[in-house]
Amino acid sequence: xxxxxxxxxxxxxxxxxxxxxxxxxxxxxxxxxxxxxxxxxxxxxxxxxxxxxxxxxxxxxxxxxxxxxxxxxxxxxxxxxxxxxxxxxxxxxxxxxxxxxxxxxxxxxxxxxx
Length: 114
Known about the structure:
Number of strands: 2
Number of helices: 4
Oligomer: single chain
């Protein structure tokens, strides 16, 4: 803590230090700001047609790594097709990197941008 009062520092101060690998969603922060400051320009989608994380959570990460040609946890066209078939109009993949996704494996050093 102790970064300052400006909004970027307040966000950084709020992060869980032991779970920095889980990241931060700027989309949610921006949406919250728009909802407060421009409510006439904001519409909330029903929860049933979007998902923030891949259905199945960490199990999906393991399965995705098995199915991905390079062993990555990144979504593939078949997974996106499945989500579309299930009725999702939006699917986020903000589960964050963890030991299951293998992002620290040396063969993926350039794949994840970390």
